[in-house]
Write a structure and sequence with these properties.
It is a single chain. The protein has about 325 residues and is an alpha+beta fold. It folds into 2 domains: about 5-170, no CATH class; about 170-330, Up-down Bundle (Butyryl-CoA Dehydrogenase, subunit A, domain 3). Helices cover about 55% and strands about 15% of the residues. The chain is built from 10 helices and 9 strands. It has helices at about 10-25, 40-45, 60-70, 80-90, 170-205, 220-250, 255-280, 290-305, 310-320, 325-330, and strands at about 105-110, 115-120, 125-130, 135-140, 145-150, 155-160, 165-170, 210, 210-215. It has a 4-stranded mixed sheet with strand order 1-3-4-7. A 3-stranded antiparallel sheet has the order 2-6-5, with no helix packed on it. The radius of gyration is 20 Å and the shape is globular. InterPro entries: Acyl-CoA_dehydrogenase, AcylCo_DH-like_C, AcylCo_DH/oxidase_C, Rhodanese-like_dom.
């Protein structure tokens, strides 16, 4: 909330997303693999949140509020895939963008097979196949999908792609697509880690052991402090990435640096935050019925999508080695 108690548009958007997400978490399906939440999706479409940047002329800062807020509630919909990835890429390729309904993206890095396609049966699938000299983009009609799911139960499929009836784009577009995906996952991970932290703080405050709340024990308090520190580092890195893409655009060196840095910092926060959260919850934290499981398993799965933290760390290392002034890179002046 802004100074003086006045709500800003971002505050109003955050409250709206939180309300929609909370209601979905209370009434939506909790299955493994996840079932697409049709009621939640209709709520997002009715409020204009399903295509915030691609159809509502909103910016990436607003998209970050939506993605992070939905991640807090483990929303079973392809929010990032629809708005930030598929709708953007289809428009970039001059293809017709459906005005309604969920979308997803099938990335074939080798030009032949798309692995880990999110929600492949629940929305129209846009192919993004990288070949030696171009990015081939086109809608896939009724593709054959080998079904699977990630750690959190989100559907992920494998599709052998057909490059006929596709549009050729420069390979620079593929770079922006992967940066967009990495940025979106960073924002979503922070939302999931915020949920895990909130649940842990509440649990240790309310759970009484040996006549006093868990958070009164020194070891527990130290663990909570560690968790909070890791979360704040991840949140700061994601905020820097969001500021960079808003100010400079995804096709800038500033955005590439900030998103790469965020993917490292946010990804590395997943393990300590998740571990501490489950330790302090005890046995109940590992059950699929508990909200903590849905939050931490999503964070762990998303950390490896659109490049692992290790891959992004190596990219930062290569940039430092090839830079004319590595110190300028270290302090973020790129």
């Amino acid at each position: 909330m802004a100074r003086g108690g006045t709500e800003t548009p971002d505050d109003e958007l955050r409250l709206l997303v939180d309300d929609i997400g909370r209601r979905a978490a209370e009434t939506g399906p909790r299955t493994l693999p996840n079932a697409f939440d049709d009621v939640l999706w209709r709520a997002l479409e009715d409020t204009g949140l399903s295509r915030l940047t691609s159809a509502q002329d909103a910016g990436l800062a607003e998209a970050a509020v939506v993605l992070g807020g939905l991640a807090r509630w483990s929303a079973a919909v392809p929010a990032a895939e629809t708005d930030v990835l598929a709708a953007w890429l289809a428009a970039k390729a001059g293809l017709e963008v459906p005005a309604a309904g969920p979308l997803t993206i099938a990335i074939a890095d080798d030009g032949a097979t798309a692995y880990d396609v999110p929600w492949p049966h629940d929305g129209r699938v846009l192919l993004a196949a990288r070949t030696a000299d171009a990015l081939r983009v086109g809608w896939l009609d009724r593709p054959d999908v080998v079904d699977g799911h990630n750690l959190a139960g989100e559907p992920r499929g494998t599709i052998v792609v057909d490059l006929s009836d596709t549009v050729e784009l420069p390979l620079d577009v593929f770079r922006e697509l992967t940066l967009r995906g990495a940025w979106a996952r960073c924002v979503q991970i922070v939302g999931a880690l915020e949920k895990a932290t909130d649940l842990t703080v509440a649990h240790t405050r309310d759970r009484v052991q040996f006549g006093k709340p868990l958070n009164a024990f020194q070891a527990v308090a130290h663990s909570l402090a560690t968790m909070a520190g890791e979360l704040e580092r991840a949140r700061a890195a994601a905020a820097l990435a969001t500021a960079a893409v808003c100010d400079y655009g995804f096709d800038s060196p500033q955005a590439e640096y900030a998103v790469t840095l965020a993917k490292v910092a946010v990804g590395r926060a997943v393990d300590p935050v998740s571990t501490i959260a489950h330790q302090l919850h005890g046995a109940i934290g590992v059950t699929i019925e508990h909200d903590l499981w849905w939050a931490t398993m999503r964070a762990r799965s998303w950390a490896d999508e659109f490049g692992t933290p290790g891959q992004h760390a190596r990219a930062l290392g290569r940039a430092a080695l090839t830079s004319d002034d590595p110190w300028e890179l270290v302090v973020g002046r790129v």
